[in-house]
């Protein structure tokens, strides 16, 4: 890639930005985006440009002077500055960028290493939008650019909205300069808004203020929602009992526009309440004992379209035309407050969502780091034992410490070594399977199998590998138990349950394995029951946790990883099933695996969805 320096544009990066995939495609609402990158180090500049050029037009600069020169005749959407650029005063550069006309609100992102934090802090105090510590991944850099652009966009909307308020106040003041009542309305509402932080004044408060300005006993902000007007906007002068009875008013009709539908409801009628012709609104006015009414339409951008209505004049002669004009000015000012409040809330929601996303990501990284430490500790501890035994036997054979070995001797030594190797292999397989589950990328080879065949195979292997001949008693369902599963993984689950039952029955107690069909729940079950050590009630919640092995004085000499039951439960869940444990200390335990039965056309739940099996 040919980099642009001292204000020269990198045309190759710009071309790629028009056709590549990345931030622009994922955020079309942001429109066309141009990025300026200033970094003295060519490698850093190249890396930052490559991270963004697949998605955005990027121009690179080798120093601050070139950047400022380019800003005089071009307007970027975001600027990225490497704080380690030699001879660059980051804080001063940002102040100069802010001083260029039209660039006041362009977000500036700083990047730097661990030892650049003082320079970065000075830049942030000068107005930088964010600081990223290098090395930074392309995804993170693109995400921070998206966030900076979104925040800048909301900032511009708030500034523009504030300008709109100022323009509206000035326009209303000029247009109604002869009417003291209009000036009083704007002044009063502006004062109320100024008293409330960040334009968050309640419309209930404004309704109370407006009632005094127009001489009304009660005021309602009606809001159009679908084909109904609701009083959710705000109101004043009504009792709690009356508020509870404020049912929506229907405005369904042939009108195409919102104003036409509001007019159809009758909410824009001015005069005596008895003169209102629309039945629904007339009934509402009558239920509230309203005498007279004035109302005007009001809207706040694309939201809050409705009517501002004042009821029951405090004057004997009723409402005047001047009070109608005052109500109109009040509706305009209140609409601006409403719009600003929603813009402000949207900006806060965006910031909260971003903060929560970062917090969740940080927690995920911490969990993965802890899992890595647990895996390493487990491997170091659990692999050392069988590896030491196997190596010891092999060393004795190699050194001749056991004397000449005949075939009978080998039959005694080899099973010990093979057993230890099998133990290490099982541990490694459990760790790999657990890692796949943590990554949420399991690949299931689903087929239709008879669950009884899996149980027979597991019991046969268990009796062959352990001193368990005659200890495992099977009781199988007479009819086939067809399930749609990954046979290898369900074999692992059943094998773990049987193996645990044998291990934790150290006195040679029997283990009962039973299959059954639960017609009511449409599941097949495998129950493994032992008469071994059992589990304390307080320890039961830890059974299926990763590395949640329960160590006691009685089972401390029994080998285990703390992964078997966790892995088995997760595999059961992937197949739409579960494992339920029952146990009593000193008596024994029962573990029951449940899996969905296959119907006439076999179906199974895999990874949150259903699949058919041909």
Number of domains: 3
Kindly state the percentage of residues in helix. 40-55%
User: Strand order of the main beta sheet, please?
Assistant: 8-7-6-11-10-9
Q: What general outline do the C-alpha atoms trace?
A: flat
Major sheet: size, sense and barrel closure? 6 strands, antiparallel
Radius of gyration using CA atoms only: 37 Å
CATH class of the largest domain: Alpha Beta
* CATH homologous superfamily caption of the largest domain: GAF domain
Task: Provide the descriptors you would attach to this structure in a database record.
614 residues, Heat Shock Protein 90, 3 domains, 17 helices
Describe this structure in words.
It is a single chain. With 614 residues, the chain is of the alpha/beta class. The chain has three domains: 11-158, 3-Layer(aba) Sandwich (Rossmann fold), CATH 3.40.50.2300; 168-337, Beta-Lactamase (2-Layer Sandwich); 446-612, Histidine kinase-like ATPase, C-terminal domain (Heat Shock Protein 90). It is built from 17 helices and 20 strands. It has helices at 11-19, 23-26, 42-53, 64-71, 90-99, 117-126, 138-175, 180-195, 203-214, 240-244, 258-265, 279-287, 321-399, 407-438, 451-465, 487-503, 564-574; strands spanning 35-38, 58-61, 78-82, 108-112, 130-133, 216-225, 228-236, 249-250, 271-272, 292-300, 303-313, 446-450, 472-475, 482-486, 511-518, 523-530, 578-584, 588-596, 603-606, 609-612. The strands form five sheets. Strands 8-7-6-11-10-9 form a six-stranded antiparallel β-sheet, sandwiched between helices. Strand 15 and strand 16 form a beta hairpin. Helix 3 (42-53) crosses helix 7 (138-175) and helix 9 packs antiparallel against helix 13. The longest helix has 79 residues, at 321-399. The chain is flat. The protein starts with 10 loop residues before the first helix and ends with a strand. Residues 1-27 and 197-201 have low confidence and may be disordered.
């Amino acid at each position: 890639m040919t980099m642009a320096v001292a204000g020269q544009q990198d045309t190759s990066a710009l071309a790629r930005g028009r056709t590549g995939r990345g931030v622009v495609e994922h955020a079309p609402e942001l429109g066309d985006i141009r990025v300026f990158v200033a970094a003295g180090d060519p490698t850093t500049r190249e890396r930052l440009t490559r991270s963004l050029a697949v998605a955005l037009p990027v121009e690179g600069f080798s120093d601050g002077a070139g950047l400022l020169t380019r800003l005089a005749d071009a307007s970027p959407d975001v600027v990225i500055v490497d704080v380690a650029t030699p001879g660059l005063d980051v804080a001063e550069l940002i102040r100069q960028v802010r001083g260029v006309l039209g660039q006041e609100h362009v977000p500036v992102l700083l990047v730097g290493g661990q030892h650049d934090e003082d320079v970065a802090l000075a830049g942030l105090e000068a107005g930088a939008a964010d600081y990223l510590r290098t090395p930074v991944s392309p995804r993170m850099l693109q995400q921070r650019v998206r966030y900076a652009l979104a925040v800048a966009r909301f900032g511009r909307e708030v500034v523009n909205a504030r300008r709109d308020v100022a323009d509206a106040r000035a326009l209303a003041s000029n247009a109604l300069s002869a009417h003291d009542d209009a000036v009083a309305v704007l002044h009063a509402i502006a004062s109320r808004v100024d008293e409330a932080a960040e334009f968050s004044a309640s419309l209930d408060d404004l309704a109370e203020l407006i009632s005094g300005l127009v001489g009304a006993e009660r005021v309602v902000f009606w809001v159009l929602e679908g084909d109904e007007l609701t009083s959710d906007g705000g109101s004043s002068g009504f009792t709690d009992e009356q508020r509870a009875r404020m049912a929506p008013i229907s405005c369904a009709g042939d009108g195409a526009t919102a104003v036409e539908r509001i007019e159809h409801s009758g909410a824009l009628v001015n005069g005596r309440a008895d003169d209102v012709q629309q039945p629904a609104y007339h009934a509402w006015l009558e239920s509230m004992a309203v005498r007279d009414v004035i109302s005007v339409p009001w809207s706040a951008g694309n939201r809050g379209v409705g009517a501002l209505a004042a009821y029951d004049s405090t004057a004997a002669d009723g409402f005047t035309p001047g009070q109608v004009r005052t109500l109109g000015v009040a509706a305009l000012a209140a609409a601006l407050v409403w719009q600003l409040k929603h813009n402000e809330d949207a900006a806060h929601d965006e910031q909260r969502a971003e903060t929560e996303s970062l917090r969740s990501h940080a927690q995920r990284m911490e969990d993965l780091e802890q899992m890595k430490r647990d895996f390493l500790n487990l491997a170091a501890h659990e692999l050392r034992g069988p590896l030491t035994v196997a190596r010891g036997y092999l060393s004795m054979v190699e050194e001749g410490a056991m004397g000449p070995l005949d075939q009978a001797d080998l039959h005694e030594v080899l099973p010990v070594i093979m057993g230890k190797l099998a133990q290490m292999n099982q541990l490694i397989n459990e760790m790999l399977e657990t890692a796949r589950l943590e990554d949420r990328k399991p690949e299931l080879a689903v087929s239709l199998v008879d669950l009884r065949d899996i149980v027979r195979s597991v019991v046969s292997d268990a009796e062959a590998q352990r001193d368990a001949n005659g200890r495992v008693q099977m009781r199988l369902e007479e009819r086939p138990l067809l399930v749609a599963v990954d046979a290898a993984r369900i074999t692992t689950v059943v094998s773990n349950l049987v193996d645990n039952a044998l291990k934790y029955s150290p006195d040679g107690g029997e283990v009962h394995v039973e299959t059954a069909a639960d017609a009511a729940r449409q599941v097949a079950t495998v129950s493994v029951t032992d008469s071994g050590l059992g589990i304390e009630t307080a320890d039961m919640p830890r059974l299926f946790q990763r590395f949640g092995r329960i160590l006691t004085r009685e089972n401390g000499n029994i080998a285990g990883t703390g992964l078997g039951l966790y892995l088995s439960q997760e595999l059961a869940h992937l197949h739409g099933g579960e494992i339920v444990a029952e146990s009593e200390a000193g008596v024994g335990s029962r573990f029951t695996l449940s899996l969905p039965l296959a119907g006439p056309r076999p179906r199974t739940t895999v990874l949150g969805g259903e699949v058919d099996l041909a």
